[in-house]
Amino acid sequence: KNEVEQSPQNLTAQEGEFITINCSYSVGISALHWLQQHPGGGIVSLFMLSSGKKKHGRLIATINIQEKHSSLHITASHPRDSAVYICAVTQGAQKLVFGQGTRLTINP
Amino acid sequence: EPEVTQTPSHQVTQMGQEVILRCVPISNHLYFYWYRQILGQKVEFLVSFYNNEISEKSEIFDDQFSVERPDGSNFTLKIRSTKLEDSAMYFCASSGISGANVLTFGAGSRLTVL
Predict the structure, then answer these.
(1) Any CB–CB contact under 8 A between B39 and chain A?
(2) Given an 8 Å threshold on Cβ–Cβ distance, is B45 in contact with A95?
(3) Residue B51, Cα to own-chain centre: how many angstroms?
(4) Do B80 and B66 form a contact (C-beta atoms < 8 A)?
């Protein structure tokens, strides 16, 4: 069983739709990260959170420590949001354990 | 905005050859990492480096791999004798205080072993 599971694996939506990507983890963590990977391969950190909720522009990330679950929401989605979104958790002091990623496609 | 720089962006090598991938982390960061992503698979942790020594490494990081910070700015990953299965995208990352801080990733170095 993977330590970090994401759902869905693939998501296609129309421009403007509200998007939710889910992440569940089975290990103790010190932090959870949401990352974005574009087709060229580069990885950008979107959020790091250890409790509660964070918002940046149209992106919102929440975490429920008791349920070992996090969600990434995108409001008013746009084609430029198309990318792979990756959930990763920090185990111990330093090591990041990654989920498989969710491939998001937003059609105009 | 400060960034992590990786070179080369793409390297093609023959099996058995040595490869060095280079990274320039953000200047005031203290923790440095290498991750890899085999095509179509998830990103995997290789090694973390702090205070001029390896602080943690994965099972993947065997004797064929080594890391070095030779001059206070570069952070290198060496693969001594490349295998076909070493073909992957290798990402360098750095963070300011600890791994429980936001990581900044480089754009990646794609290694193709023939």
Answers:
(1) no
(2) yes
(3) 16
(4) yes
How far apart CA A53 and CA A56 sit, in angstroms, is 10
Our measurement of the distance from residue A56's CA atom to the centroid of its chain's CA atoms, rounded to an integer in Å, reads 13
| pLDDT above 80 (res A94) | no
Contact between residue A34 and residue A90 where contact means Cβ atoms under 8 Å apart = no
Amino acid at B77: L
Tens place of pLDDT per residue across chain B (114 aa): 779 999 999 999 999 999 999 999 998 888 999 999 999 999 999 999 998 899 999 999 999 999 999 887 899 999 999 999 999 999 999 988 655 578 899 999 999 999
Q: Flag if A95 and B99 touch (Cβ within 8 Å).
A: yes
What per-residue confidence (pLDDT) applies to B106?
A: 95
Q: Which residues of B touch A42 (CB under 8 A)?
A: 105-108
- Give how far the C-alpha of residue B17 lies from the chain's centroid of Cα atoms, to the nearest Å: 17
Pairing state of beta strands A10-14 and A102-107? parallel
Query: Quick check: A41 and B58 CB within 8 A?
Result: no
Tokens of B104: 């900044």
- CB contacts of A9 in chain B (<8 Å) are none
Q: Write down the residue that tokens 């960034």 correspond to.
A: B3
- pLDDT, tens digit, 9 for 90 and up, residues A5-21: 999 999 999 999 999 99
Q: Hey, are the CB atoms on A95 and B105 less than 8 Å from each other?
A: no
Cβ–Cβ contacts within 10 Å for residue A81, how many?
Answer: 18
